[in-house]
Amino acid sequence: MSNDIGWKRQFISDTVAGICPQALQALQSANEAGFVTSYGEDDEFSAQARKHIGQLFGKDESDCRVFFVSSGTVANALAMASVCQSFDGILCHPLSHLEHDEANATEYLTGGAKLLHVDGRDGKIDPNRFFDYLNRGHGYHSVRLRVISITQASEVGTVYSLEDLQELRSIKREMESRLQKRFGDEEFRLYLHMDGARFANAVATLKCEPSELVAEVDILSLGGSKNGGPPTEAIVFFNSALAQNFAWRIKQTGQLVSKMRYLAAPWLGLLKDDVWLTNARHANEQAKKLGRGFQQLGIEPVLGVESNMIFVRLDQGQADALQGLGWEFYPFQLQDGTAHRFVCNWNTTNKAVKSLIEDLKGITSQPS
Fold this sequence. Notes:
The protein has helices at about 20-30, 45-55, 70-85, 95-100, 105-110, 160-185, 200-205, 210-215, 245-250, 260-270, 275-295, 315-325, 350-365, and strands at about 65-70, 90, 115, 145-150, 190-195, 220-225, 235, 310, 330-335, 335-345. By secondary structure, the protein is α/β, with parallel strands linked by helices. It has two domains: about 5-20 and about 275-365, Aspartate Aminotransferase, domain 1 (Alpha-Beta Complex), CATH 3.90.1150; about 20-275, Aspartate Aminotransferase, domain 2 (3-Layer(aba) Sandwich). Strands 1-7-6-5-4-2-3 form a seven-stranded mixed beta sheet, sandwiched between helices. A three-stranded antiparallel beta sheet has the order 8-10-9. Strand 4 (about 145-150), helix 6 (about 160-185) and strand 5 (about 190-195) form a beta-alpha-beta unit.
């Protein structure tokens, strides 16, 4: 990392880091290829990236469809648009990116589908609360439940365990069965979407196979930008029937870029030799190290440090003093009040972790 004045910025988000060397080299290789077919239909980089993402989940091209876009917001919103009509409802956590940070992109691209909050502790949906919505309204007088969207890892860094996901799938099937009876439609589906902007961090935490996290998931928004990639995300349809006409949606929203190889090629660098997982492990480990540093100062994390984010409550004087020394982080509104969020990334350095804790130690040791 360079020693410019911005090096203290690395805890504000995992998107402030640059591109990791392997992804950058893959991008350079795509550039050096010269003249390449446009729009990603036939170029070797896009085809190989789609193939490798499928293989990551034990799928071939007949089992899943992969599309590349430039942001997590458009990945999520387009995923919702592929399954929702304007009268449909999407069950999501109130802290989800879908609800909290996407400026109604889902509502816009679906023509009005409604986001329905399903609360739960530590940023994770409590699937038992799905049933609350079965008693809301009746028939076509109320929103039609259509999608469950979960975030893995969550927006507060917590991770759905394999047991959590098993319970969620079981309750989702029960909900689907009840909705089929309610609508008199045995073919009705309640779809499962996973916002995987930090999917790699969840896999690193659980030490499981990626395929275990997407069992019965219909659509995955797979994050690259937060894990060492340039602005690139992948929309992965495990239910390939939902990808019908999706190329038109990509085009209509300005995401069918002519030089698609530049969105696709970095994935080849990320996936080769499990660089994507190495990056996530490093980010997670640095967050745990930072968490231990806070604890040594008597500042307990508000939530368990399960991935690459940590939330602590500093008093305003401490926060102001730390920011006055150049450290960048920001307050985050949790369900039980405001905390200060620190995020580690693939390139967070030991020096930064140590220096932050040393500066905070100096602040907390000063007489009030």
